[in-house]
Amino acid sequence: MQEYIAHRNENTGLVQSVKEHSENTAELCREYAVPELKEFMYTIGLCHDIGKFQPSFAKRINGANIRVEHSTCGALAAKENYSVSPLALMMEYCIAGHHTGIPDGGFPNDDSSQLTLHGRMKREFEDFSEYKKELNLPKLAEIQWLKNLVGDCGNKMENLIDKFAFLTRYAFSCLVDADTKDAADFCREGEPPRKLTADFPACLEKVNARLSAFTCRTDLQRARAILQNQAFQNGNKDAEIYLLNMPTGSGKTLASVKIALERAVLKGKKRIIYIIPFNSIIDQTAEVFENLFGNDLEILRHQSTFSYEDEENGSEDYREAAKSAAENWDSPFIITTAVQFFESVYGNKRGKLRKVHNMADSILIFDEAHLMPQDYLQPCLQAVAYITRYLHSEAVFLTATMPDYEKLMREYALPDSRIVKLIEDTSMFSLFRKCRYRYLGETNQETLLCQSRKYPSSLIIVNRKATARELYQQCEGKKYHLSTYMTAYDRKKILREIREELMHLEQDYPNGETVPEDRRITIVSTSLIEAGVDLDVYTVFRERTGLDSILQAGGRCNREGKRTMADVYVFDLEGSEKKAADERANFTKGLLEKYDDISSVECIDEYYSRLFLMKKEEIQKNTMHQMCADIASIPFKQYAEKFEMIDSRTVSLVVPRDEQSQKLVEQLKYTKAGNARQLQNYTCSLKKRELEDLILQHAADDYGTGIFCLTNPDYYDENTGISFEAKDYFL
Questions:
Q1: What whole-number distance in Å separates Cα of residue 316 and Cα of residue 330?
Q2: What's the chain's Rg over C-alpha atoms?
């Protein structure tokens, strides 16, 4: 009898049969799946490599240099064996795509040359029926499966499409991770990397000890303790989604991680995933948790600007474990970005989707939750609702400026999501008010700088990078500039300098009085500084924009509450480009005129109500059901390629800043191979047309790799970042 081989280990000479690999993968699929889908996933695992029973695949595995398509055969077998169309269809998408990614569904008239599922299912294959002798495909409770699928879709095709697409990507995740693990286990020589560990009960004890160590001498400290206790008590209620709306300075981060740990311990959850909107604030969040939890928690960081190859802290053993865990998020505590999280949920390829099944049975914390992108708001809310409902996870939304997420969830995701507001009594929020917001109206750059110099330290935040640079160049005295024209490497260095200088200023002039001109600090920045960057200045000047951004800017002013009240000035810059279409800034102008305190709960509620009322079309435009009419035609590949939470008109340019980055660029230049993740720390962000301008000036080149690098250092300044004209030289 012929032995059908799935894998051959070239080093050991051992072979793994298709039967063994299929059964191993099926068992892993069942292990990974939520209870409702265990037998369904077992069946997908059994079917996925049925195409390897073709005679030509046997020749290929024995050395013949031929290409054999095997994935579609398993999809055909699923269609033949299971009569409920949606069940078979979900199997087909997963099995047909388990190497190349979930395909677009396509249309019934697609021909066999097309790469859609409809097209591929029309192809002719060799006889693979030998699988029937070796694999015993189980009977499934197909009608019950169908009832579970359509039960909460309200007879609406759009709801069915979105739910079916999500569950298909989840099933695909279980399959490809199981397939990858079994193949890797067979081919590996030596022990696999160990898994990262966490002791959640011990971590919870440390959080409780930290919280109980805080004294409550002032009204503010007492209010903080009362708010936190309110959140902790409400955290005992069972829900799918928890809303934690707490003002800046009320200890949101510690409160959120305590609630997450309590829920994880109480409900036996497998992991906590902390999701942050920007790369720039992951460092400080990770540092807080590392210092707090010590050896009781090993953190997996997964972000585009962090590479475990460059990580100096921790052992080689830890680095190998973390690199392995980053592939599929098999780790108890993960810190990642919103982009990484949501682009994984909505991907179609193995690399992204492998993580999704490990989002199940977890606690998800969305820090600065108000920053979910409006253009993708419905898909983001759906992802959270589906993960909490169908994958048995729980989510915490965390922000000081909370939109009405309960209403938004019910309107744009699942209308019956179980939602708990952790803070019901907001009457004490006013005690955390450390700033007055004052509207200056229109002013020019000279007047603005003149006013900012009256204060010991001031932060000026503007909407455009070019404006930030102009203001910085006009500044006198001790000045700093921050924008994404600068590399992350230089921004981190300058933030360290700013913090040190602010600390020395506070030590030398604790009352902020009689500060000499040469010690006064001016920081000019774009909005990047608002994303949780831990700075505390005397006064903030913020160019008018959305209310949420202005309040975030205010969070950098009198942050520690050392003064009774400080000022945040909102201004319009004379001669700056008018953005008539910017509804956020226009709403804010009306609110500045209407409310004495724009940080009040009532003002924030009105802002978001008006904003989301006007934006219904934008909120819904990027949802899956907008791109197809039925589940057989879902464009998984097209949708994944289109799903970009970061504006694709922005591109990255590598700027060598130290010896290591020089070596990485040299390697890229001469070997045409480079590690994009290792280079992230040395990139700045440009518009496509700005990069094209540098290329025309022969100041940038990608050496044929697609990773563009600055080739002329005269176009970069460590204080202001990239420029688009070379420095002048005089002989």
A1: 18
A2: 28
Q: What is the pLDDT averaged over residues 102-116?
A: 95
User: What is residue 696's predicted lDDT score, i.e. its pLDDT?
Assistant: 92
Q: Which residue has the tokens 């865990």?
A: 325
Distance from C-alpha of 582 to C-alpha of 379, rounded to nearest angstrom: 23
| b (16+ CB within 10 A) / e for 39-51 | bbbbbbbbbbbbb
Q: What is the dihedral of CA 84, 87, 89, 91, to 10 degrees?
A: -140
Q: Are 298 and 318 in contact (CB under 8 A)?
A: yes
Contacts of 603 (CB under 8 A, 6+ apart): 547, 591, 594, 595, 597
Residue keyed to tokens 């959140």: 231
Backbone φ and ψ of 360, nearest 5°: -75, 155
pLDDT above 90: residue 251: no
Kindly tell me if the per-residue pLDDT of 416 is higher than 50: yes
Which H, E and C letters describe 166-208, residue by residue? HHHHHHHHHHHHHHHHHHHHHHCCCCCCCCCCECHHHHHHHHH
Sign of CA dihedral 113, 115, 116, 118: positive
341's tokens? 């999280």
Strand partners, 650: 687
| Mean pLDDT of the region 217-232 | 88
CA-CA distance, 51 to 57, in Å (whole number)?
8
Backbone angles phi, psi at 462, to 5 degrees: -120, 170
Phi/psi for 423 (5° steps) reads -115, 110
Over range 117-122, report the average pLDDT. 96
Kindly report the backbone phi and psi dihedral angles of residue 443, in degrees, each rounded to the nearest multiple of 5, phi listed first: -145, 165
What CA–CA distance (Å, rounded) separates 110 from 90?
19
Nearest residue to 423 via CA among 259, 603, 245 = 245
Q: Can you tell me the distance from the alpha carbon of 179 to that of 28, in angstroms, rounded to the nearest whole number? A: 8
Residue 32: the pLDDT is 97
Three-state secondary structure of 17-39:
EHHHHHHHHHHHHHHHCCHHHHH
Residue 98 has pLDDT above 70, yes or no: yes
Cα distance between the two ends of the chain: 86
* CA angle in degrees (0–180, nearest 5) for 380-381-383: 65
User: CA 391, CA 705: separation in Å to the nearest integer?
Assistant: 40
d(CA 442, CA 461): 15
Structure tokens at 464: 């455009």
Question: What is the pLDDT, as a whole number, of residue 311?
Answer: 53
Sign (positive/negative) of CA torsion 691, 693, 696, 699?
negative
pLDDT digits (tens, 9 = 90+) for 582-614: 778 888 999 999 999 999 999 999 999 988 887
Is 220:429 a contact under the CB 8 Å cutoff? no
